[in-house]
Amino acid sequence: MSTEALITAPAPGVKLRTEHVGMVFERDGKSVSVLEAIDLEVRDGEFICLVGPSGCGKSTLLNVMGGFLPPTSGSVTIDRELVHGPDPRRILVFQERGVFPWLTVEGNIGFGLSKLSGAERDQRIAHYVQMMRLQGFEQSYPSDLSGGMKQRLQVARALAVNPDILYLDEPFGALDSVTRLIMRGELLRIWQTERRTIIFVTHDIDEAVQLADRVVVLSSRPAKIQDILTIDIAHPRNISSARYLEHRDDLLRKIGLAYTV
Amino acid sequence: MNLPVRLRPVAFIAVLLIIWQAAVNCHPGQLLPGPWGVVRGINDLLRHGLLLKYVVASLFRVTWGFLLAAVIAIPLGLAIGWYRRAEMAFNPLVQIFRPISPLAWIPIAILWFGVGDLAAIFLIFVGCFFPLLVTAMSAVHNVPSVYVNVGRNFGLGTADLVYRVIYPAVVPQLIIGSRITLGIAWLVVVAAEMIAVNSGLGFLIIDARNAGNRYDLVIGGMVIIGTIGLLLDLGMRSLERVKSFRWSYSEN
């Protein structure tokens, strides 16, 4: 039976849908189940955070959604189309080493734009250099950039190809806490101006509550969806408000449960 | 005494040369010519036009042997490294051939190509082929999978992936491998020229001994070989400073 036959009509406004996604890895002759029956619907323009204990399979789920790993069972559909592999319409931003060290800032941002004319490409590059505040570094190589700038560069390169979904795999995990806070603000600013669907993997509770429309809590391995929290606070969020702290405590309790299961 | 740092090695070498000369003066004999004798020997070679001729002959063989090996071994190694199945097929063969000294090929080289340039070039080719092949194979393995995934994410097909991601990612490792391999080529050419040809710096050394125990020329040849080897290495090193290659040396 083809997987296509399993797909039922999604609700209107649904951008991405995982249907009973399961993932089993073979390691040293043993099968390890990493994902189990993940059913999730992500609406167009929604900001989703995936949280869960480390090693639970958050990144695996993101890679399955991005088409880098075919799921062992179930299916991922985007705009009612089955995902078969990676696609420039949705770009994954990696935690580290995502930018090409042999290309300048301009070269990296223009990496996905080889089909555009020279003038169009230059204009697109200039736009995202400015948006990601990389002015003055156009000709620099990544080895001359700070960690935060490298991640901004990676986001700029992703946005430059105008994707409709952005997958971010703990993109700020390797940065210091101040830079991390600034980067979150920048990401929200971009999300509000460009309105892409964002799926963001993190193990940082605060990060999730600060950013997400909905937080998907995964259990420890094999990961199942344990809970989905809606964070109904308008941006910019006051991170010392009672409302914020309530959501944070709620999420912490749920994660705490996830750790003990 | 307060010598500038850069002059210290020069001063040290000068002191060694003086000790060498003094030792030879104290015990004049056949065991070793003095530095002054070596300088006169090199001067003799220069005046007869032999030095330039031999240097050019050696460099000619190294250049061709090395380039031929690079043109064949690097693309082949990249392809083998990329396709896991090809690697499983080729790797045992590579591992058997790799430890064989290129000098073991001398009889075969002479049998196939006779005494002459071709035999020497073949020996250098063999000496460079396996190090370059192994370098290219491992260079592909060391490409972080993130780079490949990013390339695929932006919709690159296999040809573009190789040209725009794999190739730039392996260049720094290929430069290091090439630098080491060129050093090997320069070692091999001397040995090859002692047997397989009638010119070049290796021939100079063996001929100076056989034709009249001219040990000043033997040492002179060694000095020239060392100097040119150093220059070749400096040349290859300068490639490592190119901006778009330099990233892998700083390890960001």
Topology:
The complex is a heterodimer of chains A (261) and B (252).
Chain A: E1 14-27, E2 30-43, E3 47-51, H1 58-65, E4 73-78, E5 81-82, E6 90-93, H2 105-109, H3 118-131, H4 147-160, E7 165-169, H5 177-194, E8 197-201, H6 205-211, E9 214-218, E10 225-230, H7 242-260
Parallel strand pairs in A: 3-8, 3-9, 6-7, 7-8
Antiparallel strand pairs in A: 1-2, 1-4, 4-5, 9-10
Helix pairs in contact in A: 3-4, 6-7
Chain B: H1 8-26, H2 35-47, H3 50-82, H4 84-97, H5 106-113, H6 117-141, H7 145-153, H8 158-195, H9 201-210, H10 215-239, H11 243-250
Helix pairs in contact in B: 2-10, 3-4, 3-6, 3-8, 3-9, 5-6, 6-8, 7-8, 8-9, 8-10, 8-11, 9-10
Describe this structure in words.
The complex is a heterodimer of chains A (261) and B (252). By secondary structure, chain A is of the alpha/beta class. Chain A has two domains: 3-86 and 164-173 and 199-260, P-loop containing nucleotide triphosphate hydrolases (Rossmann fold); 90-162, no CATH class. In chain A, 33% of the residues lie in helices and 25% in strands. A six-stranded mixed beta sheet of chain A has the order 6-7-8-3-9-10, sandwiched between helices. A four-stranded antiparallel beta sheet of chain A has the order 2-1-4-5, with helices on one face. In chain A, a hairpin with a 2-residue loop joins β4 (73-78) and β5. The longest helix of chain A is centred in the last third of the chain and has 19 residues, at 242-260. The radius of gyration of chain A is 19 Å and the shape is globular. The two termini of chain A are 35 Å apart. The relative contact order of chain A is 0.17. By secondary structure, chain B is mainly α. Chain B has a single domain (35-238), classed as MetI-like (MetI-like fold, Orthogonal Bundle). In chain B, 80% of the residues lie in helices and 0% in strands. Chain B has eleven helices and no strands. Chain B has helices at residues 8-26, 35-47, 50-82, 84-97, 106-113, 117-141, 145-153, 158-195, 201-210, 215-239, 243-250. Chain B starts with 7 loop residues before the first helix and ends with a helix. The model of chain B has no long low-confidence stretch (mean pLDDT 89). Chains A and B meet through loops of A and α7, α8 and α11 of B.
